[in-house]
Amino acid sequence: MAVNPDPKPGRWILPLVILGMIAFTYFFVRELPEASTETTLVSGGETTTTTLGGDGSTSTTAAQTPLDPDTQAYLDTVDEVNTNLQLQGTEIVTVNEGFNTDPREIEYSDAESRFEAVANATTDLAEQLRGLTPPSGLEANQATLQTAIDLAVVSANEALAGLRSTDTGDRRNAAVAAFDQAASDFDTEVTNTHNAAGSAAAGA
Q1: Measuring CA to CA, which residue among 80, 111, 78, 112 is closest to residue 97?
Q2: Which helix (H) or strand (E) holds 37?
Q3: Is residue 145 a contact partner of residue 78, using CB atoms and an 8 Å limit?
Q4: Cα separation of 96 and 99, whole Å?
Q5: Is the pLDDT of residue 43 over 50?
Q6: Sheet holding 46-52, edge to edge
Q7: 3-state secondary structure of 165
Q8: Which of 92, 122, 162, 177 could form a disulfide with 171 if both were Cys (CB 3.0 to 4.6 A apart)?
């Protein structure tokens, strides 16, 4: 009588079926288009959205809490001052570079009038900023902004004075560089002011 080496041959059927199901599921899922999963969490007045890409990477976007009208109006004016200050910074650097080229792309009379226009416009911007009343909690930001733009005013007038002097150009070039740095510092502080206002609104 032949002896069956495996008295329970049916016990291999279930594992084979499961293996087949796993293989089918794997190949089926691979054919599906990649999808992203978004999870929205609400906490402390802010809405945070986390996106999971098909490659497993994640990105998080935080929605700012709406600001009160007075704070928003203040920030809008600061942004306006910043936009105009950056334009003046571009102008003074462009004029200075044109005056420095050999042969000159910008002659003395043109450079003088344009430097003077920058100095006057920057002075007006500084006074516009000085007339603002910062919302509660933004007083330090306002002071930093005022310091930066006042330095830009001084630098613009110094550049004009250097142009009109018998200096070899070092005085004028240093003043233009100082204006450029002051405008950059102002721009950075504008971002800090927006962040401070957003944090204050979220914690209110």
Answers
A1: 111
A2: strand 37-43
A3: yes
A4: 5
A5: no
A6: 37-43, 46-52, 58-63
A7: coil
A8: 162
> Which pair of structure tokens corresponds to residue 185?
């510092």
pLDDT of 19 > 70? The answer is: no
pLDDT at 5 over 90: no
Listed residue (78, 52, 89, 102) closest to 175, CA to CA? 89
Model pLDDT for residues 185-195, shown as the tens digit of each residue: 999 999 999 99
pTM above 0.85, yes or no: no
Give, in degrees to the nearest 5, the angle at Cα 145 between 139 and 148: 145
The amino acid present at 41, given as its one-letter code, is L
Query: Side chain identity at 111, as an amino acid letter?
Result: A
Residue 135: HSE in the Cβ half-sphere, 13 Å Cα cutoff? 19
* Greatest alpha-carbon span in the chain: 122
Q: Give me the residues paired with residue 63 across strands.
A: 47
**CB contact at 8 A, 138 and 74:** yes
Mean pLDDT of 77-81: 98
Cα separation, 187 vs 183, in Å, equals 6
How far is 202 from 64, CA to CA, in rounded Å?
8
**How many whole angstroms separate alpha carbon 127 and alpha carbon 118?**
14
